Structures are given as structure tokens and as C-alpha cells.
Amino acid sequence: MKIPNKDQAIRQLRQMLLIRRFEEKSAELYSAMKIRGFLHLYIGEEAVAVGVMSALTAEDAVVATYREHGQALARGMDGGRIMAEMYGKREGCCRGRGGSMHLFDAATRFYGGNAIVGGGLPLAVGLALADTMQGRSRVTSCFFGDGAVAEGDFHEAMNMAGLWNLPVLFVCENNLYAMGTALRYTEANQDIAAKAANYRMASAAVDGMDVVAVEAAACKAVDHIRQGNGPYLLECRTYRFRPHSMFDTELYRTKEEVDEWKKRDPIELLARSLVESGQFTKEEREVVEREVAAEVEAAVAFAEAGTWEPVEDLTRFVYSERRGA
Amino acid sequence: MSEPTAMKATTYREAVKEAICEALHQDPRVFLMGEDVGHYGGCYAVSKGMLAEFGPERIRDTPLCESGFVGAGIGAALGGMRPIVEVMTVNFSLLALDQIVNSAATLLHMSGGQFNVPLVIRMATGAGKQLAAQHAHSFEGWYAHIPGLRVLSPATLEDARGMLWTALEDPDPVLIFENNTLYNMEGMLAADAGPVDIDTARVRRPGRDLTLITYSASLFKCLDAAKILAEEGIEAEVIDLRSLRPLDDATYLASIARTHRVLIVDEGWRSGSLAAEISARIMERAFYDLDLPVERLCSAEVPMPYARHMEEAALPQVDSIVATVRRMMGHG
Known about the structure:
The complex is a heterodimer.
Chain A: H1 6-31, H2 46-53, E1 61-65, H3 69-74, H4 79-87, E2 110-114, H5 120-133, E3 140-145, H6 152-163, E4 168-174, E5 177-178, E6 181-182, E7 202-207, H7 211-229, E8 232-237, H8 255-262, H9 266-276, H10 282-305
Parallel strand pairs in A: 1-2, 1-3, 3-4, 4-8, 7-8
Antiparallel strand pairs in A: 5-6
Chain B: E1 7-11, H1 12-26, E2 30-34, H2 50-54, E3 59-61, H3 66-78, E4 82-89, H4 97-104, H5 107-110, E5 120-125, H6 140-143, E6 150-152, H7 157-169, E7 174-179, E8 186-190, E9 202-205, E10 210-214, H8 218-231, E11 236-240, E12 243-245, H9 249-259, E13 262-269, H10 274-286, E14 295-299, H11 308-314, H12 318-328
Parallel strand pairs in B: 2-3, 2-4, 4-5, 5-7, 6-7, 10-11, 10-13, 13-14
Antiparallel strand pairs in B: 1-8, 6-12, 9-11
């Protein structure tokens, strides 16, 4: 791995470590029953969110899936508010109404947190359509898994985005399994990037374990979009190290396969390159680890100190409290 | 003394069209999107001529992908637009049910109040044109089950003309159901007709003996039935619900307090219908006002048949309304 910019690479390493440690802590808190519901960990896939977010600006939008802690943190959402959300606390980013699968944040233009597979893609098309109609040059990024590619919404959204030349960056996080069913059992054509051609759309596939490669591919895609060339499909080939959720016995894959992929851990790949090229020391890594640990600890403390929304507020946010907005 | 309001002859279709055109003129964020709304002129000719006036950006023909373009409407609403999404017919809206129920209705809540969805979805509904079992059902009651949605049922020219703007000003998703048998309905409308409220039911005909609660095209069947009944000395009060979610309980409960008898006329299927919900509310809140059990006239529980005589038999009709009321009044 060639590192084009040391400072940027160290920032990315730090972000990936933050996601990793944040989620390891989340798993612990799940076992401790502090977090409930479904919890889908992103561990192993961190380079995708971090690489893609590096190519976006604050004005751009993000639409994500139910496995979105990584995107939320990489986008700059506050870890404390994310953790508080998973605790179900009022101080959470959605006041505890959404939980792990539904993180939203208006300030960073983070539009969820969509737990209907493929459901976010048409929303991204609409956000991009609104930008186009209002003469804004923003990009809407839309993350989804390989499982979503089988959904009608994928094809409907790709078709509309291609037809109307909309500024959408479609990011497929291909981790090879739709929950527990391998791509080869669900897709007639497993080459996901190739599907873009049907919609007159540019595309590329990239090693999703290599954050530098993901960032470069995402920058190229975003440039293409910003120049008015229409949408882009970026397939990031990655792997989920942990089970699908906290209830998955992983009957569908072997330990050997998981171990093989762990040799390409995106964090260690980057750290090794930095160390080997003499740009980063073990001591510096330890400093980063300590900073990240403190940040995770602060997030947990924030969530622990949070409060429960009074039950009297149960039916708030079903309709807007102010009409005529 | 104020000047008498100038009236003009129009149709339901024209009233809807005028409302859309006015919205497009008044608010640059408004656009119309759906299947065949542009070059074809609208499946029911509501948007005929609009493409030439407003251009393809704002009169946007979509691919045939109800889930996709309703979802795109939600996204555009999140992005600051005020989309009017037209779904050709209510049966097709089931292809978009996921986006309507799982996204439009939930985003405000799931986001803890951060993201409201100011979207209007219009669709044709109802039977009566021999369109059979995949084009002619009445699923308004299903949608009225969903918290987070507003569900409107304009029956009159005033409401066809006036509900849209108020719906567009609403910060949350609003579904407007236009009964396809009403598009050709002719009548007089005030030349300066404008926005109307979307919260309240209306007494369309006052009467002391019995309350007919209805909405959409059945309103006119109820009014015709009330006329016939009046000749027999039975004065039926006819209530047009207008908004199916939220329901304006106060208006029909006040009527029942006066009449003590109620028949609900609903083109949805009887089981689990909107009529069932209203009946339950009456039991809960007006039981002691009633002289008789609440009765319901709904569609027969069959997929809508094609043959004319069978379709007519499947729906509440003036005759069946009159016969039911006579029986309830002891004149049967």
C-alpha cells in the first residue's frame, strides 16, 4: 500500500480505530444488556466508510443502512450521542426513538439508518433530485450491501439516477453475504460494478480493505459526479469479521475463510504500511489507541449519564409539532 | 352587503388541475412526478397540457417503478422540495407501500423529530368503472391505519380544488385519494375558490332522524338516498368525513347526539374497515346516545368483479342505503 499523504493516513487510521473500538465496546454493552434490539457490527469494513467519507464535503449527504455506526462516526457524528441512542436515552441522536439501526443527524446531513434492505436508494435519488432542481452542486452518497442489489429498489433507483443524470454516489459494500446467504446463491451476475452499465452509469470496483484505494476511488467517483457526468456506482469488496448480528451462529462460512480475510484487516494493513515506510512508530500507535479509548470511554459515560424521555412524550414526533413548516 | 361570489361551471378533474397549477405557480419547490403525468397528460387527464406550461423538470414523467419514484419523492421532500407524487391507481400504490409505511410515515419519529417529510401523494381510487380486481379497490382505510400519515378524501369540487394547497403546506406526508368516478363530475365552484382546511368533517345535509357517515364518491349516493328518504318523511343527516386520518370524531359524535341512529357507508371491505373503526369509536364514546346498534354498508367481500351488474352489486348503492335506513327507522 502506497501512502500518498501521511497526515491524512494517520487521521484515517484513527477513525478506523475509533469505529473498531467503539463497536467492540458496543458488543460488550450488548452482552451487559445496556444495548438491546439488533446490533450489526461493521468490524472489518471500516476502510469503506472512512475512505468514502474522506471524499465528501460537509454539504454532501449520506444515506446509510442498519449497519451504520461506521458511517456515522466517519461522518463526524458525536460518539456520545450515538452511544446514548443505542442506550435508548433522550440524549441520543434520535432521542432513543431509533436505536442502533436508525441513526440520523441533520447537522451532518446523515439521513439514516435505513433497515429496509435497499430502501435508502430511492431516498438518495430524491435528495439528489432536490439538489439538481434547486441548482446546488452537492453529492448524495448512498451506502448499501450486496444483498440490496437483488432488491427492486436498487434497480429502480439506479435507473432513475442514470435517466436523470443525478449526483448520487452509490456505494455497494460487498461483504459477500446477504445476511447468511452467499452472493453466489442470490445473484445471477455476481459482478456488481458491471450492473451499472445497464443504467448508463459509470462504475468501478475497489479493494474495500485498503482505505487509501477506497479514498482514491471515491475521489475519482465524486469528481466524475461533480463535473456533471451523472451518478457513479462504487463497489467496495470487503468482509464482515463479526457475525451478521448478535444472534448469528455463522453456519454459512468457515472459520478458515474468516481468518483468511482477517489477514487483510484494513486497520493493520494501513498501520503496517505506515510503520514499514517509517512514517509511524509503535509509540505513536499507542498514543492513538489511548486517545481512541478515551473517546469511547467518554461516549459510554455520556450514555450512562443520559436520561430517559418521559413516557408522556411517547406520541411525540409522529406528526410535526409545527404545521406550515 | 358583500357582493355575491362569482361562480363558474367546472369539473372535479378541472378543480384538481387548477389546484396543481396554482401550486406550481405559487411555490417553486412544488413539482409533479409520476407515471404518464407529462407526455401522456395524466392517466385521468388531470395534468393534460401542464408539460407545455411547466416543462419536463416540474412535470416529471417517471419510469414504471412505484416504490422507486415514491421513495424519490420522499428524498426530494427531505431535500427541501414540495413534491406532488401521482400514483396512477390505488392498487399500484401497494408497490410503494414499503416506502410510504416504512419511510414516509416513520422518518420523523425514527429521527427523533429531525427529518419531516413534506410530501403529497395523490392517487385514483374506487370502483364503478368496470376496472376489475387490480384497479378498483378502496384502500384508503388501510392507509388511515398508519400513524405518521394524513389521509384525505376530497369528494366535492371545493375540496378537490382546495385540499391540495393545504396538504402541500403541511410538514408531514399527506395522501389524497381521488375517486375515479368523480373526475367527470360537473358543478359550480366559486371563481375565487382556494385552500380549505384538511382537519374537519362536514355536515353536507342536515337531518334529525339518522346520521349517514361517509366519504368520497359514496357521499353523493348518501345525498341521493337522503333526498328519497326525505320524501318519505325521514330526515337523514349526511356527514362527509373528508379527512380519514386523523378522523374528526367531534362532528359525527355531535350528529349522533342529535339523531341517535347511525349508518356508516364505506366502499372498503367490511372486515377491518374504516367503518369498523368509526363504529368502535361510536361504541366507546356515544353508546348511550344510540337508540339502535350502529350499522354499516360496505363493499361485498370479493375482489372487485368486472361485469357491470356484479360490480354494482358489490358496492353500496342508493337503493341499499335507502333500504337499510328504512329498516333502521322501522319503515322496512
